[in-house]
Design goal:
- 2 copies of one chain form a homodimer.
- With 430 residues, chain A is α/β, with parallel strands linked by helices.
- Chain A has 3 domains: 183 residues, Rossmann fold (3-Layer(aba) Sandwich), CATH 3.40.50; 143 residues, Nitrogenase molybdenum iron protein domain (Rossmann fold); 32 residues, Single alpha-helices involved in coiled-coils or other helix-helix interfaces.
- Helices cover 45% and strands 16% of the residues of chain A.
- Chain A contains 17 helices and 14 strands.
- Chain A has a 6-stranded parallel beta sheet with strand order 1-11-10-9-12-13, sandwiched between helices. In chain A, strands 6-5-4-7-8 form a 5-stranded parallel beta sheet, sandwiched between helices.
- In chain A, strand 2 and strand 3 form a beta hairpin.
- In chain A, helix 3 runs antiparallel to helix 8 and helix 5 runs parallel beside helix 7.
- The radius of gyration of chain A is 26 Å and the shape is globular.
- Chains A and B meet through helix 5, strand 3, helix 10, strand 13 and helix 15 of A and helix 5, strand 3, helix 10, strand 13 and helix 15 of B.
- Strand 13 of chain A pairs parallel with strand 14 of chain B.
Chain lengths: 430, 430
Amino acid sequence: MAIRLSHTDPDFETRFRALLAAKREVSEDVDATVRGILADVRARGDAAVLDYTARFDRLQLAAGALRVSEAEFEAAEKLVDEKTRAALVLARDRIQSHHARQKPVDDRYTDALGVELGSRWTAIEAVGLYVPGGTASYPSSVLMNAVPAKVAGVDRLVMVVPTPDGVINPLVLVAARLAGVDELYRIGGAQAVAALAFGTDTIKPVYKIVGPGNAYVAAAKRQVFGTVGIDMIAGPSEVLVIADGDNDPDWIAADLLAQAEHDTAAQSILMTDDPKLADAVEAAVERQLKTLPRGETAAASWRDFGAVIVVASLDDAVPLSDRMAPEHLEIAVADPEPLVRKVRNAGAIFVGRTTPEVIGDYVGGSNHVLPTARSARFSSGLSVLDFMKRTSILRTGAEQLRVLGPAAIALAEAEGLGAHARSVAIRLNL
Amino acid sequence: MAIRLSHTDPDFETRFRALLAAKREVSEDVDATVRGILADVRARGDAAVLDYTARFDRLQLAAGALRVSEAEFEAAEKLVDEKTRAALVLARDRIQSHHARQKPVDDRYTDALGVELGSRWTAIEAVGLYVPGGTASYPSSVLMNAVPAKVAGVDRLVMVVPTPDGVINPLVLVAARLAGVDELYRIGGAQAVAALAFGTDTIKPVYKIVGPGNAYVAAAKRQVFGTVGIDMIAGPSEVLVIADGDNDPDWIAADLLAQAEHDTAAQSILMTDDPKLADAVEAAVERQLKTLPRGETAAASWRDFGAVIVVASLDDAVPLSDRMAPEHLEIAVADPEPLVRKVRNAGAIFVGRTTPEVIGDYVGGSNHVLPTARSARFSSGLSVLDFMKRTSILRTGAEQLRVLGPAAIALAEAEGLGAHARSVAIRLNL
């Protein structure tokens, strides 16, 4: 049973703060272990990767077999039914067309003084994509990470996925191929992150590593940051549903449970101005839990981290939501747009009663890799920009240098940087 | 004396790789110390900040005196001469007008199916700006970090600067005021980062922390990452100058030394197709070093990390430059644009003989906070985007849900996520 808060209760602020501060992740201290694995792969390359793969994935391989072969991709295609394949294609195409709109535009212009300035965007040449193994090996995540990379123009997109006991999810292979992944290696854990960051004889290094993973993968990404770029470190998923009284409680309950079934540390919160709906949704959650395949996980999440917040008016909802900065925000009210306009901190907004968050997980077209744990206050979901970088361009002719030079010299001198001043002065014959 | 490499030498590749791999930073292990300071500030707030300020900056303060007062800003104004102030205003205005062009455009559209999608950019509400104390307390860095934040629309821009023995650089105060900094506190080190990230009674928390600092500040930023956003961790500065034979060796030498004077760990590299120019620049460097106020620093940088690379043809220059991914790239050749177009990995390009990198440090208008240590392969200089975040928006009507729903259900089922499937199916009466 989730906790219940009422905005008008005198202890609301205290309890709301406690909800915001709740630690949902147990942080494992795996830094030392990971440091050892990274150093070993850096030193011994393929041999170290093969050793760790034998130890952690119970898989004896030769270096030549690290890469998933064309024949394996073909075999995987045969294992996927037509309906699922068509759904993956639809998802791929919609992700592609939405993300194509995110491509930044170069800017080169001459200002009033005659100085030329510019910003030029180029794709990162080589990117590594980590995909978890086992039950968390989601084909939708492959698409959500790989398609934007390819839209950005990444030349070499290298995916890794651990295959414990040699088992590989054929859907992951099919998704990788649909998304245009260039190389796929059957490795995981810190050893895979190390191979991508430092390179081995078999795997050429990449410049950035993205994708979710367990505590070892997260620690490895943090440790190689600087050598390569990394994406955000994702935490457990979360949803906040803002709902008026005119909702079907079963719809809302299903949405709350769709988050909760991800992980016992996931968080589902309902915010409503109607205490009756609150009651009805809580009852529906309990009812639906009974027939849910992942019911135990969802029940634990709902019990430990779920919450129902009753507000006096929906006008109070957005300010509270902005403090929570939810990864996913559903706005299930009669006239959602005025609320949508007010939202400042949220990873993604799902507008209206017929936009369940799950549509965004798969086929909406927008990205499902979104900022968790209140980080939507300062960061964004995955986009094409994460696979590109910007070079700035400056050109001053002799004329412009004469105009701007003296100010540059004045500032260099004020900062005590004599060679800076000279580098300008010498061109002005000063 | 810098090392000399020739592209046609048989050992070139080996030596070039060694140059790329050269470690210029001594990494101090200050993690444990920093962890203690962060925990203490988190627990004791202002009292801890005041204790560390007394210990590290030899400055006894009451909490009420942490914030720099209006009277101090007024006093600082009187200490800055008119020429320097005018240079700061010029720099501020040029940075402002260039960065205004970086503001991203919101996108909301309806696709062929009738699905509404969107991306909306909003400013981060509160940002902290770390400014180093002492000789590295540069007013130009204040402008380069603070102006883009204000252009982005950050509501509350909070600056911290340590003032060892109570000494504060008046130029830094004037620059902070010109840039629109909202609050300024005289604290530094890990304790300042902690105060910004966790908040104290005096200092309300921020959502992101930017700006350069020493090893303690960098470690503190890494440790609070997640609680708040951080910018890149900047390394020592570097420049690569690509020059044809038709350059004044003294101009090029001055540019190389302008980087070298920053730091003994800075790196200046000349790449040219003219061995005579290489010789002449080396001689000019030695000559200019003698009259440089920061000659010792520059000489150590040039001796330990400087390099001159002679290529057979300028066509070879850009591929090598892309492997180096320099923070600053000067292209001092007769017809620079064809080379500019080829560059893929560089923080900023300075085009033509009359665009010394120093113009970009101060008054060009582009940002001087740029990716170091080859990270231009995967990251960009500071921009307005670093102070904003994007919320994605999705809206499917009942009609669109009927079209897309079955594919979402198919993928949810393929991924074993029953509540995901139900969240869609229940809306379709399935």
